[in-house]
Amino acid sequence: EIVVTQSPATLSVSPGERATLSCRASQSINSNLAWYQQKPGQAPRLLIYGALTRASGVPARFSGSGSGTEFTLTISSLQSEDFAVYFCQQYNNWPPITFGQGTRLEIK
Amino acid sequence: QVQLVQSGAEAKQPGASVKVSCKPSGDIFTGHHIHWVRQAPGQGLEWMGKIDPKTGGTHFAQKFQGRVTLSRDTSISTVYMEMNRLRSDDSAVYYCAISVEAAAVPSYDYWGQGTLVTVSS
Q1: Are the C-beta atoms of A34 and A88 separated by less than 8 Å?
Q2: Given phi > 0 = left and psi -120 to 50 = alpha, else beta, which region is B56?
């Protein structure tokens, strides 16, 4: 099973600043990684798939990068609605599909 | 418009079974594999398994093999997740989810609203 590790667990950033979230896989997953945003009481929302492709309707301030074992989600200028929990997910070697434990992005 | 509508919250005792339904809208029922993901309170996401509604074929995470059944009723375009021998640590929100935009990969752009299952004596 591929283990996916996110860092940091919590990230405090001021509105308007850049946020960088990391995701590491225990072995190469090529570009088979997705990022999700989740707000309290809601289902996750797909942001990025294929490591760098924005899902339909996702603002351009969200960007994904990386391949192999190291991945990054960057939010270029944080808006109030971006403060949430973010999960990465690998789907290279499955079953099982595995998720990271999440990064909580909070207002500084 | 794609929607996944799940059944309502359930409260069960340890050792019991629960069956959660997920009904995709429109004509997407046989066109997409339906995955199940759960989330314990305050915790992360855990993939459970998936079903191909067209064939009934399933795959599971090893953790759930033998305790979870995924099935479908094609006459009403609905899929089901049934879990047996419930324990307190099975208390979670259970989601069904599908991939439409990138249909070839399991990146979920549509999710059900979630079904809260509470296991307590």
Answers
A1: yes
A2: left
Q: In this predicted model, what pLDDT tens digit does every residue of A53-64 receive, in sequence order?
A: 999 999 999 999
Which A-chain residues 20-79 have CB contacts (< 8 A) with chain B?
32, 34, 36, 43-44, 46, 49-50, 53, 55-56
**Structure tokens of A108?**
């500084």
In chain A, which residues have their Cβ closer than 8 Å to the Cβ of B62? 95-96
| Averaged pLDDT for residues B76-85 | 97
- Give the whole-angstrom CA distance, residue B21 versus residue A63: 35
Read off the pLDDT of residues A22-36 as tens digits, 9 standing for 90 and up. 999 999 999 999 999
Provide the pLDDT for residue A101. 98
CA distances to A16, A88, A102 from A107, rounded to whole Å, are: 11, 21, 16
Beta carbons within 10 angstroms of residue B110's beta carbon: 21
